[in-house]
Amino acid sequence: MKIDERRFEKLLENKEYIQLREDLIQMNAIDIAEVLEEIDITTALMLFRMLPKDIAVDVFSYFPADKQKEIIACITDKELQYIVDELNFDDMIDLLEEMPANVVKKILLNSNYEERKLINQFLNYPPDSAGSLMTIEYVDLKKEMTVKESLDHIKEIGLTKETIYTCYVTDSNRKLEGLVSLRKLVVSEENEKIEDIMNEEVIFVNTHDDQETAADLFKRYGFLALPVVDKENRLTGIITVDDIMAVIDQETTEDFQKMAAMSPSEEKYLETNIFTLAKHRIIWLMVLMVSATFTGGIIRRYESVLQSTVLLASFIPMLMDTGGNSGSQSSTLVIRGLALGDIRLKDAGKVIWKEFRISIIVGLVLGAVNFLRIYYLEKVDFKIALTVSMTLVVTVMISKVIGGLLPILAKKMKIDPAIMAGPLITTIVDALSLLIYFYIASSILVL
Which residue intervals define the domain CBS in the entry (predicted)? Predict the structure, then answer.
């Protein structure tokens, strides 16, 4: 349940902490974390300590890194050790990755040899790899086991595992041989062998595969969990859907930032220093500003055409904006299609042909409406109206084809397609639209 904010504030003001505790433990752990995050650290720590230990651990896992640091700085080693011991292994690794060296050292000192070995192994995986996301808390079975033995095994260890809905079958060397779902176990005969009911066609990722590869498999197959193996095909861990959802959000945010011509950042907007935000934006803006000088060069080159018909200059913003918008529409759809796997590199021809046909329809409609508007309503000379409208048709056609093609070329060149988005395409299309405009103007008005 959600907390009543007015009631909470009143209880907090009256220092009715016992009642506050009762209200909090009725809530979901993530909602408790959100509430405690909003109040001062002294009160938050007191309420956090009043929570039942199992709830407190879950709440701690939902705190952002800065809040976790504050809590760790204020609690005793014994309290910290309990939290670390009870956290899911993947949450503990996430915690250690965010903590300063002195905190990590403190946690490692209180861990046994096997735990330290595992922790160090996980911390050595590349930051955005499948290995850095996985947890070791999975259920593994042997193919010689019966269904009854497997269910008994799950009942014995299930509460300490991240998920029990998919169980993984391994040999004596931990090599992945297959998987079996809990549903399959429940409906099968007790004396059946696991090897007779397991699925040997297992989809997995390697520990060093990029996290985006894992995310694509989750989206494609609708997995709840995905096994992770090492280079010798030994089961090392699993990635669960809750962890991959965070990756999908992160990758989507990164794409949006690149599409807006900014360097990607994982920090929250309101918590990021203004100089950091400026640094992320200024490089691309500078590149785009310098590249925009090409449009100035084109205008200077055709200065004589503009001087002979000054009215032409008034239509330049409309032509450049329409071209940029047309290209951005196409690039946005293609970039998203590439991200979702709906469009592949081999579909480049189909995309170009589709965008070309769309551009003809859109260009002719916009050109016709523009001609009627400026010729009949604005009483512009027929030749100028024709020049502007023809330029508009050609610009839209070229913009849409370029907008559809550039993201695919970027993907082919192993560059993030999101880079080929609005600002960059607009800069390219601006230069092309001006070249087309002045070429058509020179042909129609001068000859």
Answer: 198-254
